[in-house]
Amino acid sequence: MRDSENAISIANLTKFYGRTQALDNISFTVKRGDFLAFLGPNGAGKTTTINIITGLSNYQSGTVKVFGHDVTKDYRNARRLIGLCTQDFNFDPFLNIFQLLVYQAGYFGIHSEDAKQRAREILKRFQLWDKAEVRYRALSGGMKKRLLLCRALIHEPEILILDEPTAGCDLELKFLIWDHLAQLNKEGKTIFLTTHYMEEAERLTKTIGIIDHGRMMCLGPKEEVLRNKSLQDVFMEITGIE
Question: Going edge to edge, which strands form the sheet with 61-66?
Answer without folding.
Answer: 20-31, 6-17, 61-66, 69-70
